[in-house]
Automatic annotation (TrEMBL):
PANTHER family: BRCA2 AND CDKN1A INTERACTING PROTEIN, BRCA2 AND CDKN1A-INTERACTING PROTEIN. GO terms for cellular component: nucleus. This is Protein BCP1. It comes from Hydatigena taeniaeformis (Feline tapeworm). It comes from the Eukaryota. Belongs to the BCP1 family. InterPro entries: BCP1_family. The lineage of its organism: Eukaryota, Metazoa, Spiralia, Lophotrochozoa, Platyhelminthes.
Amino acid sequence: MSSKKSKRSEESPDEDVIELDLEGFSPQLEDRDGIIQLLRQHMPKDSNVSLGELADYIINQSSVGTVVKNTVNEADAAKDDDDEIIFSLTTVISLSVPTVARSSVVSEIRTFLSSCISRAEPSSSDSKILLKVLMGQASEKPGLLINERLVNLPPAVAAEAVAVLPQEILTLPEEERPTHLILMTRAVKSKDADELIYIQPEMEIVRKVAFAVVEAESMDVAVDGESETITYVIMAIEFSSIPEILDLLAASP
C-alpha cells in the first residue's frame, strides 16, 4: 500500500507549535492498542462486540485499511509519545455471508447492527432496506466502513485512506468484496432537540448520498461521569459512490 502523507501543526494554549508528519500504513500488530482505542470511540459500550478480536481481524486483513501515525525520524534518538498514537483508522469489514460464517467477531458486528436498526425504527422503509443490505439478500454484499479519527483532527487526515479503498478491496476474495457499505457515526441532539450535531461534521454530507438512514439512541457515560445520550446514525451507501462522496467533501467549505 502506498504511503498517504500529510503535515499538520498543532498549537497548545501556551503558543507552542507541535508539527506532526502524519503518514498512512497498513495495520500492524504494534498498532493493536491504538486501534482498540479508536474502536472504543466508534462503537457503543453496549455493542457486545469484542474490540480486541476486531482489532486482530483488522490487523490480519492488512491488505485492506490504513492507520495514520506520526512518522518516526530515525535520526532522533528520543522516542516521542506521539510516535505511538494511532491518529486515524480506516478500513472495511466484509459482512458477507461467508465472512460471517467464518469469523465470530464479524458475526457479532452483524448481530449488533441488526439489533440497532431494528430497535431504531422497526417499521420504517429505511430499516427494512438496511436490514436487507446487512443480511446480504439478493445481490448485495455488505461491508462495514470504519473511518474513525481523534476528535481534534480534520477529515482530510483520512481522505487518501478512503480514496484507495476501491483498489484495496480487490485483494479480497470476490465473494467478500462489498457492493454496499454500512456506516455508523455518532451525533448529539442540540439543546432544543430539533437538530443533530455530528461528531464528524462531514457525515452530514455523506448522509445526503445514503439511500437508507436510521437513528438509534444510546446512553453513554461521559468523562465527568455524567450520562449523555448519543445518537448513532446508521447509513447505507453504494460502494461505487465513494468517489462522489470524496468530491463533495473536497468541495465543501
